[in-house]
Amino acid sequence: MRIRSILSLAAAAATVVALGACGSDNSGSTSTSSGTAAGTSAATTGGGGGASGKIALLLPESKTARYESQDRPLFEAKMKQLCPNCEIVYSNADQDASKQQSQAEAAITEGVKVMVLDPVDSASAAAIVNRAKQSKIPVVSYDRLITGAPVDYYISFDNVKVGKLQGDALVKKLKQDGNAKGPIIKINGAPTDNNAKLFKQGSNDVFSQAGVDISKQYDTPDWSPDKAQSEMEQAITAVGKDKIKGVYAANDGTAGGAIAAMKSAGMDPTKIPTTGQDAELAAIQRILAGQQYMTVYKAIKPEAETAAQLAFDLLQGKQPSGDVVNGQTDNGSGQVPSVLLQPVAVTKDNVTDTVVKDGFWTADQICTGAYKQACAAAGIS
Ligand code: BGC
After folding, report:
1. Model pTM score
2. What region holds the Periplasmic binding protein domain (predicted)?
3. 150 C-alpha vs ligand 1 centroid, how far in Å?
């Protein structure tokens, strides 16, 4: 609530300036973009005055749709509103931790004043933070926690809750299907991602309390959908295609891989509930078609926009405006002031009330060709 009101104030103050901002450079894996609104307008930008400077945005991968299609553009747009004269130095590490290290070093050499970092590897990114600190560059840990180094802020979702929502939904569906104890296959995220540990923790708690039998479980390197597919193939061979009653997949990409494996083994995914996360368009379509049971919707807009606001505050050497920070997170190096947003479970029943209502996806985007009928049946038009 508090976060939303702060954001809307900032957004309102910046609307005028946004009209004058130019498009960003979208080419290559590293790029810079800057606003070109006249200096006089800068005074109207949410307190930015004539602020300027370079800000690094370092994202971890591009196989998961959210980073290039949502996190990056939403962060850039917000920054352009807040600080038309600021420049964003953007890089995507394509799941490669050492590439991310080099991208961070390059950004530091370019003279960034603040770094917003979503780490490929939560632990090894401590080296990036320590390097940034040598140059007095504050670091915002974005979406994934960086562990073992002094980061300035952490912005993410309640990630144990993400796992709990996935687990609760699957347990409920297994009961409805008369398969309360499973067995299920569990496809977790990347072992190097602190979030994956939290999703695992939240979901494992639910499964052990409900006494669900997990026949096979895997950590999926790089969160790669292809690897999830081969893990599921192995599970089907080991457990038997008629025995598996449900699949926990940690996100929509890995769910897509698991569902593809089930299809090629001749299994019917509409009969085997599968979880996910991210509310990706393809996942929402699969949910409507009955091929995926649920996903977790995390509103990326407030996450990206609040990160932009934090970065802008840090650029100006200010404390975050208002009481944006709503928690503290122990990252092994100390207590990190945190902004933790709430995730929401989505099944066929509440697609309209969640992602459509929020404009995360429009009915037109969801209800293309093959999904028209499923949309009509779910009352989405
Ligand atoms: C993010 C998820 C994403 C996954 C794979 C996690 O850290 O929270 O939204 O699906 O990484 O990139």
Report:
1. 0.88
2. 55-319
3. 22
